[in-house]
Design brief:
Blueprint: H1 2-15, H2 19-31, H3 33-55, H4 58-64, H5 66-93
Helix pairs in contact: 1-3, 2-3, 4-5
Length: about 130
């Protein structure tokens, strides 16, 4: 009976909007649908792993063991440093401070373009 209560509460926590929702929305607006889907997949994979770990008692072991908690913190810190280095390397390749209009091209829109008035779409071609 306790398992179903845990699953129910986990589902409510997972679907509640929070920082993950903001991150997915930001990626959708700035980088398009595929980036948002990738972010969503990553967020939900992480939630699934942590929910499974909590269900199998890993969270209790980490809470009770100072060594396990320290190892988890260090692994997380190394991962965050790696993400930061990757972000800096990507920023060097594609400068985020370069004005959009500098090269004469505008930034791609994340929204689908409407056809010009009178133009036929591929679905309605004769």
């Amino acid at each position: 009976m306790h398992v179903w209560a845990f699953v129910g509460i986990s589902i409510l926590v997972i679907i509640a909007p929070g920082p993950d929702t903001v991150l997915v929305t930001k990626n959708a607006v700035l980088h398009g649908r595929s980036a948002a889907l990738g972010t969503s997949l990553g967020v939900n994979t992480g939630l699934l792993i942590w929910t499974g770990a909590a269900a199998f008692g890993v969270a209790a072991v980490v809470r009770e063991s100072a060594v396990a908690f320290t190892v988890l913190k260090l692994v997380g810190a190394v991962y965050l440093v790696w993400l930061g280095v990757q972000a800096l390397r990507a920023a060097r390749r594609h400068s985020v401070h370069e004005p959009i209009g500098r090269s004469g091209a505008s930034a791609p829109s994340p929204w689908p373009r409407k056809p010009a008035p009178g133009a036929k779409s591929a679905r309605h071609a004769d």
